[in-house]
Amino acid sequence: APPTAPARAAVEVSWDGPGNPTDYVVLLPVGSDNRVHGNYALVSRGKTLQIATPAEPGEYELRYVTAGKRLTLGKRSVTIVPRPAPGELQVVDETAAATDLSGATVAVVLDASGSMLQRLDGERRIDLAKAAITDLTADGIPDGTAFALRVFGHKEADSCRSDLEIPPGPLDRASASAKVASIEAMNLARTPIGASLKAMVADVAGRAGPLLIILVTDGEETCDGDHAAEIRGLAANDIDVRVNIVGFAIDELMLQQTFAEWARLGKGKYFNAGDGAELTASLRQSIEVPYSVVNAEGEVVATGTINGPPVRVDAGNYRIEVPGDSGRSVDNVTVVMDERTRVSLGERSIDP
Predict the structure, then answer these.
(1) Chain segment 145-177, per-residue pLDDT in tens
(2) CA-to-CA distance for 266 and 152, rounded, in angstroms?
(3) How far apart are CA 322 and CA 223, in angstroms?
(4) What is the C-alpha separation between 244 and 237, in angstroms, rounded?
(5) Largest pairwise CA distance in the chain
(6) CA–CA distance, 69 with 249 (Å, rounded to integer)
(7) What angle do CA 242, 328, 101 make, to 5 degrees?
(8) Which residues of 243-266 are buried (b: 16+ CB within 10 A; e: fewer)?
(9) 3-state DSSP call for residue 97?
(10) How does pLDDT run across 102-134, given as a tens digit for each residue?
(11) Alpha-carbon torsion angle 20, 261, 146, 129, nearest 10
């Protein structure tokens, strides 16, 4: 790895070693115990890894660690240096509501597999997820919107079972709250993400109007499904479908990047939620209209929601793209370091 890397970015790491699937490379402060939490990447991702760097500059170590006994087989020092303050970018549309679900079906796919039994700040992940979905159905989704809920991991151990718990139809807020409260994660249950996405499309077959699928998960596929292929298949159909992915307590940058790419294929957005409050906010934002920030090379460097909170990007010149609505895209948006650029779809201003 390089001897230095900027804070709040990523460091590229190449490795050589036994390559056991659950071994990993982790970035920790010098002198830390291997049981301390740190940003990491599984070595199964490939010989070159991307690991997120912390916000705090200082002296760190990259360590190759075995998953079983957490033995350090190799390490390398890396200095995390301050990163120039990024700018902020906010996209608004004063002429339209942030949420336009007219005639749409909102379909949530919930991961209730064994990993959702882990605790975060003293609460089980599944309980935090249930609270966030209850908040969404209580008053986040407009009256008259169709709603559906599919859940996997809650009924059979060591199984790839996925069940439609709320069939698509007009949202009944009280009934949805009761159904969500009854869901319990099951230890050792597996994660059939690809099959669940495919099943959800079949669940809503024949319904008119757009389909918004929101996947809530804390991990990756364990049932040999191919999310990317399923999402590409959705996008290739004639139906108007968007797939948003909400990753919950996912610390591995490369998995976040994979989910972000799948959401892009589904004309949607990836939301990374580190705790219960961020999960609730992410679900609220997931029903809003997304946009992408694209650099001069055509790479998507950030995503956000119209009329939502600002996103942080490096100073530079960008294009704002609204999926499915290229007529509202904006070219030549300049972001200035340590300033906020506010873009209306048609005009823009910079506020210090």
Answers:
(1) 999 999 999 999 999 999 999 999 999 999 999
(2) 21
(3) 33
(4) 17
(5) 59
(6) 23
(7) 40
(8) bbbbbbbbbbbbbbebbbbbbbbb
(9) coil
(10) 789 999 999 999 999 999 999 999 999 999 999
(11) 40
